User: Fold this.
Amino acid sequence: MTDTGSIPAAVASTTDVLNSANSLLTSHRELLTQVRNSQRAHRRQLRALSTAPNDLINFPLIDSPAPSPLHSPPSSPQIVPRTRPQRQDLHPAKRARVARYANYVPEEETIRNDYSQRYVDSGEWPQNRVLGAEPSRRFEEYPKQQRLLSLKKESVDAHATPPFFLPFSHLSSLHPQKFDVILLDPPFSSSFDWDDLQALPVPSLAADPSFIFMWVGSGAGEGLERGREVLAKWGYRRCEDVVWVKTNNTTNRGPGTDPPTTSLLTRTKQHCLMGIRGTVRRSTDSWFVHCNVDTDVIIWEGDAADPMRKPPEMYTLIENFCLGTRRLELFGRARSSLRRGWVTVLTASDGAKVGEHARTTEGDAVHSWNKDSWEEATRHLASLAGGKCVVPNSQEIDALRPKSPMRSGNSGVSGGVGVAISGGVGVGVGSAGVGMNVANMNADSNMNIQHNRRPPSQNQMMISPMMGMGMPMDMGMGIGNMMGMGMGNMGMMGMGNMGVMGMGDMPGAAFQWVGDGDRLWEDGMMAGMGMSGGMGMGNAGMGVGGP
Assistant:
């Protein structure tokens, strides 16, 4: 219980506090009244002055400080700004730029490519000024590239399955189908994170070989790092990074109106990691991939109706690159993702938005997922491409598409052994002596040639004991019934020129040699041309074991 004797003391204390507060407010009110009265008095005095006080104007000037010592370096000359004549023939906006920017050239419509300054002044992103970014204008000056893209589009359209879709809840119904390409844009939220993404059965859906394309965000967060980790968990190796650079031609609201961000720079791009599963060689697997048809940069404004939508050009990029006809998209959108040649797994929110008579943006009727129908369509396409689930490659496309550069240098493979048995005669070239084994070659019944060990720094010729002989002739030739036998692949290189002609059953080939007369077999080296099998020269067998 509360002590009744303490109530009067509490009331007295509260009264004292209120009296003190009222006193402070009264003092503050008096101070404000005094300040206002003082300000009014000063204003009346200022209005009473007709001109500036002459006493202040007549004060003597303060002397300037003494000049700097003579030994100090001279100051830089003053650069007088160049006066520019007024251009009345220009548009008012250009006249304003002439007055504001000293390096502005109206005829060039540029400020020395100072697009960062333009962004500060107008909010316009620099990539808005990229010319020919639209796919329809991208290769206006390259008719061959235009022709290639047109042919590939026709070929892809002619060898594509009907568009299929299914809700994300039915993802397991895709098993045990395999896909050559998987595209996904994870819908990260409070209920779906990186661990949920990693748990998806992507490895069981991926063929070998196959590719994956996964959007991972702008790079401001952990998307790039976690994306690589997830690809590795799924059995992919990251091989490329496609970047979507956004423009704001239609969404620019002026300087300083971009959404706030915690990053150091304004984020205007999105990353899509590309992974490869299995082994694909660009030089030999042109039946499955066509490289360098597109670049790894996409410039696109975005979709105002769907801010989360990714560039539709991504589908074309994938179809131009990978010729596989089994394509899968995870977390697609009913409004924009359904496409001929693709199986689209819709997001949970879009699963029920596809009507019974829905069509793609190109006008194709879409079909609910049916494994039997899809397998039948896939088998039909494989029958048109020699049994493989790929888009057939025509001669014109193969002639127009970019090729892998040819590597210079050794084209042979080390570890070859050559043996020749015959009774022919070999003749060497030029002033250099060419050694050969006339009849004294050591070979066992299994045709294994014995050779002496050479230091590791020397190329080893697998022939022993030799006789050297040289003739100043332009061509050597072997005569007789000769038979060359070779085991393994030989890589042959060299410097100099020599022609070797085979007569009878001995094949001929051009060689290049380095050597010094009698020691050619000891110090000589062959280079330049790779061939399989042995080469017979008279009664000698020779081979090259290269590094």
Observations:
- Residues 7-48 form the longest helix (42 residues).
- The longest strand covers residues 206-217.
